[in-house]
Amino acid sequence: MNESSIVVTGAAGFIGSCLVGFLNSQGYTNLLLVDDFSRADKEPNLQGKTYLQKIERESFFDWLQKDDPAIDFIFHIGARTDTTEFNYAIHEHLNVDYSQKIWNYCVEKNVPLVYASSAATYGGGEFGYDDNHELPFKLKPLNPYGISKNEFDKWAIEQTAQPPFWAGLKFFNVYGPNEYHKARMASVIFHSFNQIKKDGLVKLFRSHRPDFKDGQQLRDFVYVKDVIKVCYWLMQNEPASGIYNLGTGKARAFEDLVKATFAGIDTSPNIQFIDMPEDIRDKYQYFTEANMQKLFNEGYTDKFYSLEEGVQDYVRNYLSQGKFY
C-alpha cells in the first residue's frame, strides 16, 4: 500500500470517480474525496472504492484550516461542466474562484497540483489546438463554461507563486464508464447506446455548415482510461509544469463513433439526422483535435485507445452490463 495522502475533487463525478478507482488499483487508499455528495445519482460511482474521508465541496477549505492534514498531491477534477448553463456566475464560482483557492493552498503548503481544464477553451478552433502558454490569451471560447476554464488557465500561467509542480489538462471529448448521472452532458456513446436499446436507431445532429456533411463533424474523442493514466503519470513523473492537451491527437467523425457503438452490440448501423437545437447551434464546435506533442516530448509513451477499441470496451464491458469502473 502507498501511504501518500491524495485529494481528488469532483470525486463522485465521471472522471474523478474513475481516477479514484485507478488510484486504488495502484495501492493508494489514503484518499480525501471532495464533491457535492448530496446527489444520490452519483453514489454508485464510489461503490467498492477505498478512501479515508468524504468532504463536502463547500466546507473543504474550512476543513483544511481546522484539520491541517498532511497532503501529498491534489487532483482538482471537480468543476461545473454544463456547457448549456449560461449563468457565468455559477461557472465563475466553481471553475475560477474555487480553483484559485486550491492553487493558493498548494502554493502555501508546497503541494503538487493537477487540475482539469477543457478543450472548450479553444472555441471555434480558429487559433488551432496548441497547448502553448501564449494561446489562452487569444482564445474566444463559445460558452460560459469554456470562458471560465480559460480564465483560470490564464490566471495560472501568470502566477509567480506556483505549486512545486502543476499541470492544467485540457480534456477533449472524454467518454467512458461512470457518466450515467450526466444526463444531457453525457457522451454521444452513452446516448447512442440508450437510443439503440430503446428505438433501434441513433439520432445525430445534422450539420448546419456547408463545409461539413451530416455526421462528419469531427471531435477528438478520448477514453477515460487513457485520461486517468495520464493523470497518474503526471503525479509519478512531475514533468515540466504547464498546460497540457489531453486527447488522442486524432479527430474522428460522430458517424464513426455511432457505428462503433452499434458494432459493440453487434447491430447494423441505423442513423437518423435531426436539426441541432437552436440554443447551441452558434456555440457548437465542428472540429477539435489535440496537438499532443508537448506531453509526448515530456516522455509519455503509453499508447492511446483507438476510437473503436475504446468504444468496444465501454459498450461491451460497462454499458451492456450496467457496470461501473
UniProtKB/TrEMBL annotation:
Pathway info: Nucleotide-sugar biosynthesis; ADP-L-glycero-beta-D-manno-heptose biosynthesis; ADP-L-glycero-beta-D-manno-heptose from D-glycero-beta-D-manno-heptose 7-phosphate: step 4/4
Family: Belongs to the NAD(P)-dependent epimerase/dehydratase family. HldD subfamily.
Domain observations: Contains a large N-terminal NADP-binding domain, and a smaller C-terminal substrate-binding domain.
UniProt organism field: Pinibacter soli
CDD domains xref list: ADP_GME_SDR_e
Keyword check for Isomerase: yes
Residues holding NADP(+): 14-15, 35-36, 42, 57, 77-81, 149, 174, 182
Molecular function terms, GO-annotated: ADP-glyceromanno-heptose 6-epimerase activity
Job of this protein: Catalyzes the interconversion between ADP-D-glycero-beta-D-manno-heptose and ADP-L-glycero-beta-D-manno-heptose via an epimerization at carbon 6 of the heptose.
Keywords of the record: Carbohydrate metabolism, Isomerase, NADP
Required cofactor names: NADP(+)
Protein known as: ADP-L-glycero-D-manno-heptose-6-epimerase
Domain of life where this protein originates: Bacteria
NCBIfam families to which the protein is assigned, alphabetical: heptose_epim
NAD-dependent epimerase/dehydratase domain ranges (all copies): 6-247
Matching PANTHER family: ADP-L-GLYCERO-D-MANNO-HEPTOSE-6-EPIMERASE, NUCLEOSIDE-DIPHOSPHATE-SUGAR EPIMERASE
The reaction(s) this protein catalyses: ADP-D-glycero-beta-D-manno-heptose = ADP-L-glycero-beta-D-manno-heptose
Pfam families: Epimerase (PF01370)
Binding site for substrate: 173, 184, 191, 205-208, 219, 284
Residues of the active site: 145 (proton acceptor), 182 (proton acceptor)
EC number: 5.1.3.20
Cofactor note (record): Binds 1 NADP(+) per subunit.
UniProt keyword NADP, yes or no: yes
Oligomer and partners: Homopentamer.
